[in-house]
Design goal:
- The chain is globular, with a radius of gyration of 21 Å.
- It folds into three domains: 3-103 and 200-262, 3-Layer(aba) Sandwich (Adenylosuccinate Synthetase, Chain A, domain 1), CATH 3.40.440; 104-197, Adenylosuccinate Synthetase, subunit A, domain 2 (Orthogonal Bundle); 265-423, Adenylosuccinate Synthetase, Chain A, domain 3 (Alpha-Beta Complex), CATH 3.90.170.10.
- The longest helix is centred in the middle third of the chain and has 22 residues, at 154-175.
- Helix 3 crosses helix 4 and helix 5 runs antiparallel to helix 6 (183-197).
- A hairpin with a 2-residue loop joins strand 3 (41-45) and strand 4 (48-52).
- With 428 residues, it is an alpha/beta fold.
- The strands form five sheets. Strands 9-7-5-2-10-1-11-15-19-20 form a ten-stranded mixed β-sheet, with helices on both faces. Strands 14, 16, 17 and 18 form a four-stranded mixed β-sheet that branches.
- The chain has twelve helices and 20 strands.
- Bound molecules: inosinic acid.
Length: 428
């Protein structure tokens, strides 16, 4: 099977960008199938650190065709800014980028409405990235969305944009008492971006299916994480797309039978940004130590991430949803300094022990982690490139996570450098 899917096994920020970039060396095509500019994939390219939001992480490899598929929501202005920013880092985006005509657009009114809605939620705010993601997917479902293919011809686009923008201005002013959007100015910005993006528009699903049929290596790059999935995550504290492997079929236009192998990516501990339950969250000095050592700040918003211990119940839930054939553990080196490392093996909810991830977010909020302590190794793992290079206790830790999650570990990442990876099996 020539397809490989990379899925975040936690609440996002698992280090998928680095793994995609690593695997992209051997890939012919990299496909984004959900999410939008809420993603922040940090990768080391030629000694520099580059953050991708909408561009597939394979874009730094000119030989890989990069596809923004129909399940993605695209902010055209943000995408143009990103293309220009990566060009300054020496990454030229040309004919290697394909944007699907059916991908929905994030428009300025989506961001304005989201800001007003989040403010109105007060203490119940989701803590979104304010990239307009939720309102754009809502418009898609309510059949009022505009799609990338609508950007041309400009006259028709203008008419559609003005109609929807006028309605959203009613929501902004009447419901939220917020200032209306300047429709003309907003439109002008989108039109400028549209002219830049038009040459990249394509009907991408046949191209992706054709590549799979021809045996090319196609990497499907997930954004966010399984626990932010709109159907199976910690609803309502989730994003608005399908972040599990199921999202690939509808988000890239590929039959489920052709998706191929699925790899989960999980940190060797856990982080979360935004609101919502997080059973293994650490506090005080331990949380701060993880945050400092792991540079745990949001790549998109700069927010400090909430930090905690590895949650095997949650990762097993993600593995079952997507059918992980392998697990890539990232940032193992962040744990190098700890004397003991708690691992959550089960939850206790209302005095009852369970190893199932609860479907009710209210139940999850009451879940108390049952921890077992793994001994730390207190030695650097950063130079390790083969399993045997790892300190004994680090290898035991990896093997313990493997048995708790019931997924074979395919690789372990031990530092930010592009090749700081220990492969446990041939992954692509
Ligand atoms: P939205 O996707 O901006 O609507 O945000 C919804 C929730 O998903 C919030 O808790 C965000 O912090 C979280 N989120 C969205 N994108 C990412 C990501 O790429 N990494 C981690 N969390 C994310």
């Amino acid at each position: 099977m020539s397809g490989l899917v990379l899925i975040g096994a936690q609440w996002g920020d698992e280090g998928k960008g680095k793994i995609t970039n690593y695997l992209a060396e051997r890939a012919d095509m990299v496909v984004r199938f959900q999410g939008g500019a809420n993603a922040g994939h940090t990768v080391a390219v030629g000694g520099r650190t580059v953050v991708f939001h909408l561009l597939p992480s394979g874009i730094s490899r000119p030989s890989a065709v990069c596809v923004i598929g129909p399940g993605v929501v695209i902010d055209p202005e943000a995408l143009v800014v990103e293309i220009d920013r990566v060009a300054a880092d020496g990454i030229q985006v040309g004919a290697n980028l394909l944007i699907d005509v059916g991908a929905h657009l994030v428009m300025p009114y989506h961001k304005a409405v989201e800001a007003a809605e989040e403010a109105a939620r007060g203490g119940l705010a989701i803590g979104t990235t304010h990239r307009g993601i939720g309102p754009a997917y809502a418009d898609r479902c309510s059949r009022e969305g505009l799609r990338a293919g609508d950007l041309v011809p400009p006259a028709l686009f203008r008419e559609r944009f003005e109609r929807v923008a006028a309605r959203r201005n009613e929501v902004l002013t009447r419901l939220h008492g917020a200032p209306p959007l300047d429709v003309g100015q907003a439109l002008a910005g989108v039109e400028r971006a549209a002219a830049r993006l038009a040459p990249h528009l394509a009907d991408t699903p046949p191209i992706v299916r054709g590549a799979l049929r021809a045996g090319k290596r196609v990497l499907f790059e997930g954004a966010q994480g399984s626990l932010l999935d709109v159907a199976f995550g910690t609803y309502p504290f989730v994003t608005s797309s399908h972040t599990t492997a199921a999202g690939v079929a509808s988000g890239a236009g590929v039959p489920p039978s052709q998706i191929g192998e699925v790899l989960g990516v999980a940190k060797a501990y856990t982080t979360r940004v935004g609101a919502g339950p997080f059973p293994t969250e650490a506090e005080g000095a331990e949380a701060e130590m993880i945050r400092e050592r792991g540079a745990e700040r949001g790549a998109t918003t700069g927010r400090p991430r909430r930090c905690g211990w590895f949650d095997a119940v949650a990762v097993r839930h993600a593995a079952e949803l997507s059918g992980f054939g392998g697990l890539v553990l990232t940032k193992l080196d962040v744990l190098d300094a700890f004397e003991r490392i708690p691992v959550c093996v089960a939850y206790e909810i209302d005095g009852r022990r369970t190893d199932r991830f609860p479907r009710s977010t209210d139940d999850l909020a009451r879940a108390r982690p049952v921890f077992e302590d793994a001994p730390g190794w207190q030695a650097s793992t950063r130079e390790a490139r083969r399993p045997d290079d790892l300190p004994r206790a680090a290898l035991d830790y990896v093997r313990r996570l493997e048995s708790l999650t019931d997924v074979p570990v395919a690789a372990v990442s031990v530092g930010a450098a592009a090749h700081a990876i220990v492969e446990f099996s041939e992954i692509l």
